[in-house]
Design brief:
This is ABC transporter ATP-binding protein. Keywords: ATP-binding, Nucleotide-binding, Transport. It comes from Herbidospora galbida. By secondary structure, the protein is an alpha/beta fold. It folds into two domains: 198 residues, 3-Layer(aba) Sandwich (Rossmann fold); 76 residues, no CATH class. It is 30% helix and 29% strand. β1 and β2 form a beta hairpin. The longest helix is centred in the middle third of the chain and has 17 residues.
Length: 293
């Protein structure tokens, strides 16, 4: 099955500065994917490359099996500031969407605007932040994309507006099968809607996979202080904290943890994301010993 997004050693440079470099990633079809990472990790650059708004400086990128520039009509994009035109009315936005998109679904757009209680005559400048976000989402959905890319669409919204936006997204994905890639700093929001996760740090993918599988194979171990070299070879150390007497590891393993010295606790999605975001590059399994002191 063709991935919705496939990057190989992808890079984007502005002058001497690399915004994204050596990024290799594959996102399979059939998922709502959460993309998370610290500021400067390259998330927005990656999404703009996937939406055909930027061209790579190096490497290769395929979206729905094609070069992004060749499938713009099949990809919807909602940017971080949920862009709408302040001087246009809600209805003007729908008219513009219909003119620009050959696959435009006017009934979907009109029904959704009515469901949201938006007045088609109202200027976008008079909408609340949540209403502007919902209008931008409507424009993306009415395009009937095969892939919808959302770059921090709820970052500036209050909790109620975020919940309503994400509820609308979940309802849309349940009604129609299309891929979603959602970038967000708010892990709780990702946990609510995403079933596939990508953690990007310094342009490199730290972990990627289905959320249920990742949570089932990652564990927190707490017990007497122990060097990571003494852990079984099938336990990959993601992060570690140490005191004089105690070690706390986040590890990834497919095998049962049988050592009675450890107290084993499951991770939340936020625990898992933070463990990978806080990792420090180091060689070998001893990386965990000095990490996160």
């Amino acid at each position: 099955m063709t991935p919705v997004l496939q990057a190989r050693e992808l890079g984007k440079r502005y002058g001497r500065r690399w915004a994204l470099r050596d990024c290799t990633l594959e996102i399979p079809k059939g998922h709502v994917t959460g993309l998370v990472g610290p500021n400067g990790a390259g998330k927005t650059t990656l999404l703009k490359l996937a939406a055909g708004q930027l061209t790579p400086s190096e490497g290769d990128l395929r979206v729905l099996g094609e070069e992004p520039e060749s499938i713009l009509s099949r990809v919807g994009f909602v940017a971080q500031d949920t862009p709408v035109y302040a001087g246009l009315s809600v209805g003007d936005h729908l008219t513009l969407g219909a003119r620009l998109n050959p696959t435009w679904d006017a009934r979907l757009a009109e029904d959704r605007i009515a469901q949201l209680g938006l007045d088609p005559r109202q200027k976008a400048r008079r909408l609340s932040g949540g209403e502007r976000a919902q209008l931008a989402l409507t424009l993306g959905l009415a395009k009937r994309p095969e892939l919808l890319i959302l770059d921090e669409p709820v970052a500036s919204l209050d909790p109620l507006a975020r919940r309503e936006f994400l509820q609308g997204l979940m309802e849309a994905t349940a009604a129609d099968e299309f891929g979603v890639v959602l970038s967000s700093h708010l892990v709780a929001d990702l946990e609510r809607v995403c079933d596939f996760l990508v953690v990007l740090v310094d342009s490199r993918v730290q972990v990627a996979g289905e959320v249920d599988e990742l949570l089932g194979t990652h564990h927190r171990l707490t017990g007497p202080r122990r060097d990571p070299d003494r852990l079984p070879s099938n336990q990959y150390v993601v992060s570690a904290r140490h005191t004089d007497r105690q070690s706390t590891y986040v590890i990834r393993t497919d095998e049962p943890i049988l050592d009675p010295a450890w107290v084993v606790t499951p991770l939340t999605l936020e625990d898992l994301v933070l463990a990978y975001m806080e990792r420090r590059p180091a060689a070998g399994r001893r990386a965990g010993l000095e990490a996160l002191r």
